[in-house]
Amino acid sequence: MDAALATPFIKAFFDLLPQLGFQQVKRGNLRVSEKMAVSLDVIAVVGLSQQLRGNVAYAMSQETAKKFASVMMMGMPVEQLDEMSQSAISEASNMITANAAMTLESQGISVNISPPTLVIGHGVKVRISQVQSLIVEIVTEAGVIDVILGLER
Fold first, then answer.
1. Residue 44, class by beta-carbon neighbours within 10 Å (0-12 exposed, 13-18 middle, 19+ buried)?
2. Which end of the chain is least crowded, N or C, by CB within 10 Å?
3. In which band, very low, low, confident or very high, does the pLDDT at 37 lie, cut at 50, 70 and 90?
4. DSSP label at 18?
């Protein structure tokens, strides 16, 4: 996977999360995986099509997901991942991916995105793509979010 394709997604986090109430947003580690497989507790998957094809997944622990949803919901306590908190996580993944898609469009890369699919469960393994994936950690006060990009042109 071309690492330059990750830039719009990383930029989207830095542009959007402060608007959603996050005070701390930093880039963490970067790594490559041969196949796009995810095994964290909460995974939002968005598909991309047209000139850029594949999937982007936003993966986090359940504790991070609860804290993330709480910030999205203006500090409302989140004890469990109910329908409202799940919706907040899905909406954030949609907003981030849409922002990245607009950046890609401005670079001449036509992209359509699918609605997010949210997968929740301890020890669940999701294999999303056969292509080499780039994993970028985004560190927030809610915890670490793995942005997993399995994209090809």
1. buried
2. C
3. low
4. G
Residue recorded with tokens 């542009």: 15
Domain harbouring 124, CATH code: 3.40.1550.10
d(Cα 56, Cα 40) in Å, to the nearest integer? 14
Task: Please return the burial class of 88, using the count of CB atoms within 10 Å of its CB with bins 0-12, 13-18 and 19+.
Answer: buried
Which amino acid would we find at residue 149?
A: L
Which residues span the domain enclosing 109? 3-152
pLDDT at 130 over 90: no
pTM surpassing 0.90? yes
Please state, for a pLDDT cut of 70, what percent of the chain lies above it: 97
State the Cα–Cα distance between residues 87 and 122, nearest whole angstrom.
19
Closest to 35 (Cα-Cα) out of 150, 151, 152, 153: 150
The Cα angle at residue 35 between residues 16 and 111, in degrees rounded to 5:
45
Residues in the chain: 153
Given a cut of 80, whether residue 35 has pLDDT beyond it is no
**Per DSSP, what are the bridge partners of residue 58?**
44, 147
d(C-alpha 132, C-alpha 51), whole Å? 17
User: What is the distance, to the nearest Å, from the Cα of residue 148 to the centroid of all Cα atoms in its chain?
Assistant: 7
3-class DSSP state of 64: helix
